[in-house]
Amino acid sequence: MLGYPQWRRTGIRRWLPSWRLVLGSLLTLGFLGIGAVAVAYAMTTIPEPDEFTQAQTTTVYYADGATVMGTFATQTREIVDIATLPEHVGHAVVASEDRTFYENAGISPTGMTRALINNLRGGATQGGSTITQQYAERYYAGQTTTDYVGKAKEALLAVKIGQSEDKEEVLGNYLNTIYLGRGTYGIQAASQAYFGVNAADLTVSQAAMIAGIIPSPSNWDPLVDPERAEQRWNRVLDLMVEDGWITEADRAAQVFPETIPLSTGQTYAGPQGYLLDMVRRELRDRASFTDEQIDTAGLSVVTTIEKPLQDAAVTSAAALMDGTLAGEAPAPNLRASIVSVDPADGAIVALYGGPDFISQSFNSATQGEAQGGSTFKPFTLVGALENGIPLTKRYPGFSPMPLPGWERPGLRNFGNQSFGSIDLVQATEDSVNTVYAQLNIEIGPEKTAQVAQRAGITTPVEVNAANVLGSSTVHPLDMASAYATFAAQGFHSTPFIVRQATYIIDDSVAYQGAGAREQVFSPEVVADATYAMTRVVTSGSGSRWVGPLDRPIAGKTGTSNENRSAWFVGFTPRISTAVGFYQPPADGTPGQETITPFGRGVREVTGGTWPSALWAQYMEQVFAVEKYAPADEFPERANVNRRSATSTPTPTATPTPTPTPTETAPPQPQTIAVPGGLAGRTRADAEAALVNAGLTANVTEQPSDTVPAGRVISADPAGEVPAGTAVTLVVSSGPAAPPATPTPAATTGAAAPAVPPPG
C-alpha cells in the first residue's frame, strides 16, 4: 500500500524510505508536536496558590505589643511586600539563581538543555529551573519535581505565569515562598533566623549569604559548613559585579556576615507555655478560630500579660520552690499558682501556672482546683450586707460551738480559740469560723453560693452550711477574678488574655478581646466588705507578711480542712492577686493531700504563712512598677444598714409610796466607754466605732494643716458616758484657704479706700 518494497531499486535501497517521505513525516510530527504544545499551553491554567505557601507564622506578644512571647506555626514564615525590601536583596537572588530572570519568558531553553545533557550522562539530576519555574512549582504546585513530565508541565505553567504576572510580583512571591534553612520559609523569617534583623534591614553581605545557600540551605548553613557558605557568598558577590548590580568597590568592601546561634527552643517550653496555651484556647473558644487557622493565618496577637509582672510572678514562684523564700524547699509535688487580674476590665496581667508546660501541661492557675477555705467568707459577708445585716451586728464567737450541720461538740475556730460577742469586722479580721457559720445559716447557704458565682466563681458551689468555710473547690483564676469584683466596687468583668489579634498582612482586626462587664453588687455593700477585709491585712491573719507593704490592701487568708490547700487573695483598687497552694499525691493518684510543712518555724501551712509571704514578695515587685506604684485609698466605709447598738432600757415602775420615810433610789443609767484612738481615723471608721459601742456621732468639720481631710481631729466627750450619748467628732476639712488678696481699686485719680483693720 505504501509502495514497499520499491521495485525499481535493488538491495537494501528497496526498503529505505524516500527523502520526501522522511521530510514529510518529520514536518508532520513537528506540526503535531507544535500543535500538542499549543493545545497544552492553551489548556494550562494558573491554579490557586498552594495553601502551604500562604501560611504565615502567628506571633504572640506581651501587653507592650513589642516583646515576643512565642509563635504558632506549621512553618516559620512571615510574608513581606517586596517593595519594602532593599533592591540588593532581589539582585543577589537573581544573580545566584537566574541571571536572565528579567529577560527570559519564564523558562531558560539553554538551562533546560544543559540539565538534560547532564542527566543523560548520568550526572546528578538537574532541573535547569528559572526563578519563575521554581516559583511555579512551590507557590502553585506546593512541591518540587525532577521528572521530565513534571518539568514539562512546570515549564508550561512558568511561561503562562510569565505572561500574566510581572517580574516583581514573581520575585516577591518567590522570596516569600522559598525554603531558606533553619526551619524558615521566606526572606523575612530567614533574616530573623540568621541575623536577628528584619528583611528590610538586610545588608548586601547578608543578602548575598542567604542567596548563596538557596540550593541547599540546611547543608550550607554557616554553622554547618562555614567554608562552603563563604564560597557561595563569594560567588554571589562576584556575579552581582558581573551583572552590574554592585561595583568593584562595593564588592571589595564586603565582609562575610556573622550569623546568630541557631534557636532550638520549643514554643511551649517554660512558664510562658501556659500563657500561649491560654491564648490558643481563647482564640479557639471565643474567636472561633480553628487550630489550623491559628497556625497559618499570620496573626499578630497582643496579650494582656504585662512582662514586668509576669517576670515577678515567675521569679517569686521559683524562690518559693527552691527554698529561697522559706529557707527550705517545699515538697516537689506542691502546686503553687499566682494570678493577677485588672479590676477595670478583667484583663489577666500575670499568671504563673507551673514551671514548664512541656513537662507538666496541667495549668495550676486555670485548671487546678482546691478548696477555697476562708477566702469564701467575704462572699457570705456581702450576702449578709445585701440582706440588711450591718457590720456592727454582734455574734458569739466561742469554740467549739454546736451548730446545725456539724457533729458534736460542734464547729471549732482555728486553734480552737474562743471569742466573746464580736462584730463582723472583728470576725473577718480574726477569721472566726463560728461567727461566720452563724451568719451563713442566718442568710442561707444558697445566698453565699449565689454571691460567689456573681463575683466570678465558675465552678459549682455547694449549698450547705459549710460552704462559707470554702468546702467547694475553685480555680485560682476565679478567686483573683472574684476579688477583682470587690476592687472594682461591685463591677465584674470576665477574665481574658487576648487584647487584640490582627492579620499581619493588612493589619485588619481579627479579634478584639474584652471581658463582659456587669455591676453585680452595690458600691456601698462592697465598701463595707472591703473595709472589713483591710483589717485582715492591718491586724489579722495577713498582717505578718502583707501588712509591711504599708499601703491600702484588702484580702483574706484561706486554709481548708487538714491543710489540703492554703490561700491568700488580696487586692488594691488597681490589681487583684490570688496565690493558691495545693499538693496532689506524689504517686500521681487523683486527689489532694495535706501540704507538707516546710520553712522556718512553720508546723502547718496555712494561708497566713507561705501563701501570704509569696503574695507579699510578688506584690512588692508589682508595686515597684510605675502603673501600680500609687497607694490608692479604698472608698470609705459606707456603714450600710446602720443600726444603733444601744439597747432600749426596760422601763422601771414607779415604786408605791410607803409609810416609811425612805424611797427606792432610781436605777443608774448604763455607762459605756467612748472608744479610744478615734483621732486620726477616717470619719466613717470613727462613726462605725461609736455606733458599735452603743453611742451616736455628731460630726462637725474644721480646717486643719496637720490632719488630712476626712480624718478625725478630736472626739468629745471621752471616758465613761451613758449609753446613747452623742459624741462630737471634729473632722478635718483640709488646710484652711489662704486669705483673699484684696484687688487694688482702679486708678481714677482718687486714693483707694483704706483696708479696714481685722476685727
What's this, in brief?
With 759 residues, this protein is of the alpha+beta class. The chain is 34% helix and 14% strand.
Annotate the secondary structure layout.
Elements: H1 19-43, H2 51-54, E1 58-61, E2 68-72, E3 76-77, H3 87-97, H4 109-120, H5 131-140, H6 148-164, H7 167-177, E4 179-181, E5 184-185, H8 187-195, H9 204-212, H10 217-220, H11 226-242, H12 248-253, H13 272-285, H14 291-296, E6 299-303, H15 307-321, E7 335-341, E8 348-352, E9 370-371, H16 377-386, E10 394-397, E11 419-423, H17 424-429, H18 433-443, H19 445-455, E12 473-474, H20 476-487, E13 491-493, E14 498-503, E15 509-512, E16 517-519, H21 523-538, E17 554-559, E18 565-571, E19 576-582, H22 610-622, E20 671-673, H23 683-693, E21 696-702, E22 712-716, E23 720-722, E24 726-732
Parallel strand pairs: 1-6, 3-5, 21-24
Antiparallel strand pairs: 1-2, 4-5, 6-14, 7-8, 7-19, 9-12, 10-11, 13-16, 14-15, 17-18, 18-19, 20-23, 22-24
Helix pairs in contact: 3-9, 3-11, 5-6, 5-7, 9-11, 15-22, 16-18, 16-19, 16-21, 18-19, 19-20
